[in-house]
C-alpha cells in the first residue's frame, strides 16, 4: 500500500467515525434535556399542585427563558455547536434561533434590523407548522367528520 | 419509568436529527421545520397523545410538540366554533412558545449587546 492509497483509506473512514460519535452525543444530550424537563415538570406538579398540561407549559417557558438568557450572555452558541442536534431539536433550539437573530440584527436598527429579522430563523418553523396543522385539520374534518 | 422513557424518546429524536444533518445537505433550519411538520402529522395520526402519556417531558420538550399543539388547538377550535374555530384556535395552545420566545428574546435584546 502506497501513501496515496493509505490517505484515501483514511479519508474514507474518518467522517464515518465522527458521524457515529455525533449521533451518540446528540442522543445523550437530547436525552438529558428530556430527562431534566421531565424532572422540572414533576417538581412543579408536586410543589404548586399544577395539572400536567399547565406544568408542561410552565416548563416550556422556563426552558425558553434559560436558553434565551444563556444565548444573550454569549456562551450558548458554543454549547449549540458542541451539543449538535441534542440542543437543536428541543425547544432550546427554537429559543436560541430567535434570540441569536435578534441580537445579531440589533445593530442595524430597531425597526429595519431587529423588527424585520426577528423571526428570520424561527419563521420557517412557525410558517410550515401552521400550514401543515391547518391542512391536516382540514383533511381530518373532511375524512372523519 | 417515565424518566427513562423521556430520556430515550428525546435522545432518539435528537439522534435521528443528527443522522439527517450528517448524511444530507439539510441545514438545522430544514431539520427543525421537518420535525415540526412531523409533530403535527403524528398528532394527526393520534400517536402523539400516547407519546406524551408515556414519555412526558421527553415528548413535550422537542420541537415536534409545537406542531402537535398547533394541530390540537385547531381541532379543538373546529369542534367548538366550526370552520372559524380552525383559524381562531390554531395558535391558542402554541401561543405559549411563540409569545415566550418573543417576550424573553425581545426584552433581553434590549439589555444585552451582541458579543462580537
Summarize, please.
The complex is a heterodimer of chains A (145) and B (116). Chain A is mostly helical. Chain A has helices spanning 3-47, 52-73, 76-83, 85-88, 91-105, 110-117, 123-144.
Q: Largest beta sheet of chain B, briefly?
A: none
Backbone CA Rg of chain A: 21 Å
The number of strands of chain B is 0
Count of DSSP helices of chain A? Answer: 7
Q: What's the pLDDT, averaged over the residues of chain B? A: 92
Share of β-strand residues of chain B: under 5%
Helical residue percent band of chain B: over 70%
| Overall residue-averaged pLDDT value of chain A | 89
Could you tell me the number of beta strands of chain A? Answer: 0
pLDDT < 50 stretches of chain B: none
Give the helix/strand class of chain B.
mainly alpha
Oligomer: heterodimer
Q: What is the N-to-C succession of helices and strands of chain A?
A: HHHHHHH
N-to-C order of helices and strands of chain B: HHHHHHH
What is the helix content of chain A?
Answer: over 70%
Question: What's the gyration radius of chain B in Å?
Answer: 16 Å
The greatest inter-chain interface is formed by: A-B, 72 and 68 residues
How far is the N terminus from the C terminus of chain A? 68 Å
Uncertain runs of chain A:
none
Amino acid at each position: 500500500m502506497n501513501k496515496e492509497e493509505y490517505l484515501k483509506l483514511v479519508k474514507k473512514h474518518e467522517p464515518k467515525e465522527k458521524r457515529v460519535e455525533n449521533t451518540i452525543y446528540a442522543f445523550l444530550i437530547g436525552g438529558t434535556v428530556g430527562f431534566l424537563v421531565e424532572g422540572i415538570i414533576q417538581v412543579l406538579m408536586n410543589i404548586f399542585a399544577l395539572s400536567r398540561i399547565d406544568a408542561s407549559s410552565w416548563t416550556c417557558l422556563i426552558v425558553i427563558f434559560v436558553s434565551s438568557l444563556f444565548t444573550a450572555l454569549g456562551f450558548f452558541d458554543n454549547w449549540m455547536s458542541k451539543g449538535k442536534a441534542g440542543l437543536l431539536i428541543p425547544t432550546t433550539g427554537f429559543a436560541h434561533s430567535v434570540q441569536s437573530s435578534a441580537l445579531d440584527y440589533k445593530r442595524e436598527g430597531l425597526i429595519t434590523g431587529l423588527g424585520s429579522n426577528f423571526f428570520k430563523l424561527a419563521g420557517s418553523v412557525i410558517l410550515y407548522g401552521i400550514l401543515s396543522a391547518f391542512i391536516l385539520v382540514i383533511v381530518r374534518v373532511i375524512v372523519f367528520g | 419509568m417515565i424518566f427513562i422513557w423521556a430520556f430515550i424518546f428525546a435522545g432518539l429524536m435528537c439522534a435521528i436529527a443528527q443522522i439527517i444533518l450528517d448524511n444530507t445537505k439539510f441545514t438545522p433550519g430544514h431539520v427543525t421545520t421537518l420535525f415540526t411538520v412531523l409533530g403535527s402529522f403524528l398528532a394527526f395520526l393520534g400517536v402523539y397523545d400516547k407519546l406524551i402519556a408515556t414519555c412526558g417531558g421527553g415528548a413535550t420538550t422537542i420541537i415536534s410538540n409545537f406542531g402537535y399543539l398547533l394541530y390540537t388547538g385547531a381541532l379543538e377550535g373546529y369542534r367548538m366554533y366550526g370552520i372559524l374555530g380552525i383559524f381562531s384556535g390554531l395558535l391558542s395552545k402554541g401561543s405559549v412558545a411563540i409569545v415566550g420566545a418573543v417576550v424573553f428574546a425581545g426584552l433581553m435584546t434590549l439589555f444585552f449587546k451582541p458579543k462580537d
